[in-house]
Amino acid sequence: MITLEVRGNTKLTPGFSTITLGGPELEHLKPTGFDQTVRLFFPREGQERLRMPKLSSEAWMAEILLLPKSRRPWVRNFTIRRARPELGEVDIEFALHGDTPASAWARHARPGDPAGIFDMGVTYLPPAHAEWQLLAGDESALPAILAILEHAPASLAAEVFLEVAGTADIRSDITAPEGVRVRWLARDGADALPGRLALDAVRKASLRPGRFYTWVAGEAGLATGVRRHLVRERGVPKPDIAFFGYWRHGRSSPG
Question: E strands, the chain, where?
Fold first, then answer.
């Protein structure tokens, strides 16, 4: 368990903010890949302090659930967007989804506010045999995909599909190797369910020849839909697809 505090809160676009966390305990974080995932602990509204678990293994979950809600912190999964170990800082990007606990906290977080993280490792593990990569996600997966592209080797060849809530959330300053083609997809208030634009775009895309690795994450229907399409319609081996349903439309995470 790593206890930190907020050092900055920067609005990136209408739908995204970056929270900078820092503290001397970050020396205990040992990044192992591009999409470094952490459990983020942050206080509920009205809590005077953040109560972090004392256990440093996965047993912390039972410890948290035994607490009454009045003392229990919120816990959500996030990807570290950038790390600056020399400054003892990490950045975490928040997709501001309505009034979810994480979005509400991110909108109001101020320097000095408490937070904590627990390292969960990485999920982006491309095999050596992959000739190119397919990366797809909605706004909840955007920080992970941008971190992957920013740290990827210059030789990376990839087709990338990024869905966001609105055109104003499209980034013009992303860093990616020359062999990467990025397609931005904005819902702009359309009735389409989150993730549907990215799923349809993958279904209709003319993909490169050769064996490829897929990493897709976001709304559950997007993740499972892309996997199902690739396996059934394009004959992609299941082991070559990593898919993660970060959230499910219409259903909130338990508190």
Answer: 2-13, 16-22, 37-42, 74-84, 89-95, 114-121, 132-137, 158-164, 180-186, 212-219, 241-247
